[in-house]
Amino acid sequence: MAIAPMSIRQYHVFLASPGDVNDERHMVRQFFEHYNRHTAQLWGVRFEVVDWENFATIGVGRPQELITAQTLERFRDSLALVVGIMGQRFGSPTGKAESGTEEEFNWALESHQQSGFPEIKWFFRRIDRFVAPPDPDEIEHALGQWKKVRAFRERLQTLDPPVFYAEYPDVTGFRDVFESDLSRWLADPVRPWLGNLPPRHDVVLPPFTPPTEYFRRVEGDFHRLDIAGIDNDRAFEIPLSEIYVRLRVMFDEDAQTDAEAIQDSGPLNVQTALLRYPKLVIVGDPGSGKSTFLKYIALMIARSVLQANPGIALEALCLQEPLPIPLFVSCWDLSDFLSKRDRVDLPVLLEFLTQRLEAYGFRIQVSDLEKLLESGGCCVLFDGLDEVPTEHGRAAVSRLLEDCVRHFSQNRFVVTSRVRAYTGDTILQGEFTRCDIQPFDENDRRQFLRNWVALLFKIPREQVLMEGTEARREFDSLSRGIESNRHYQGLFIVYHPPRTTQRGGRCRCPVMKR
Fold first, then answer.
1. Where are the domain boundaries for CATH 3.40.50.300 in the chain?
2. Fold assignment, 212-437
3. Mean pLDDT, to the nearest integer, of 122-142?
4. What is the DSSP string of 344-397?
5. CA distances from 143 to 22, 90, 96, 132, 456 (A)
6. What is the pTM of this model?
7. Is residue 338 scored above 70 in pLDDT?
8. CATH T-level topology, domain 9-195
9. Helix H segments across 92-170?
């Protein structure tokens, strides 16, 4: 059998800026490298960043005209986006504009007015006070550059239609503002790279659709994250979608799956793993975010349905329509249910699932649930395999889940477990692929703390890092405390809801775990 090459549709992104924002330019390239690897490739798409440094060559002619011909003009037909970044410098006159960046903007604006593309996204570093260069002879020129930046920003507002731009406080703040905006824009279903996706033949529309009340209750249960440990004196509601930080996973080196093809590429976003492997086991230490991710899956699908906006699940989970019906199952509750039955088999599991669905406002008969699962229109989320009380019980539940997958293999299945409990006969066989949650790195910790402080002070995330604010002082204080203590770098804040003990009492797990 001959091998066949994959067909990749390539779009281009032009990066325009003066020379004082090199760190931000590097972040743009990093973003698209990451996006290509984790998300775009799953759609058969790739975005290549184009700039004058890497694509233009010297020659005879006006320099900016040569740059434009070798970049913007060359990739006109596939140019999806022009990203502009400005700090305090504007650039040097080109003969047609006050700077090369301005001439590139003018080209992009004219093209956009003619064809609708490229999209233009412009970012300004927020500079509240002019920063003079150390050389006195350069102060006047630097001040003139800053005035030109301000005049250009005002020009964007007076255009018809105006160009909506964004501001960012500093280099770290740029990453947050840029990634938030681009992630939403790229995942919008109206984008040509998503509108041209091939039709899906792996999913059949389910014969039964849960009532709206079902999705309302799912959202009501999972929209809020109860956590503690950072700030016990200031309790406040934490929206899961606002605090969530994407987890990274590594695949089991001994797993006999096609995961081996990507092991050398390092950690992947867990959302990418979810899309690539429909039978997934997520293993991690206590408090690493396993349960939170399952709740996030259910929440994002429910919110997409309630708001009639499939782009929510596409952006958050890389899942396209038709969206699966989320079925969240606590393995603790399942084991308690099984302990009251005289057998452990598939009909008992289906009986349990119908009761759980009814508790969420979705009344369905066992026979109809079977048809629903046979259609392959569900995403079944089994949380906490390790919470089954005994090793024998965990092995029995694992065999039950394997039986469920054999009978209803067209659905997505995600199972979570702590590392120490996922051994021996508990290990799931068959189609399951294991991945292990990786510890937060410094960027992950900063992102989580920024989200936390934004919610604490009730401000947009991009304002957290503004110099001289109480929010910035809080962020810096928390960051120093964590980064100066390697023990705390392994911590993730988590709350486990109270459970009923065998004696009828209430117990609560520790709020902070390694």
1. 212-437
2. Rossmann fold (3.40.50)
3. 89
4. -SHHHHHHHHHHHHHHTT----HHHHHHHHHTT-EEEEEE-GGGSSSHHHHHHH
5. 20, 10, 22, 8, 37
6. 0.71
7. yes
8. Rossmann fold (3.40.50)
9. 100-115, 139-158
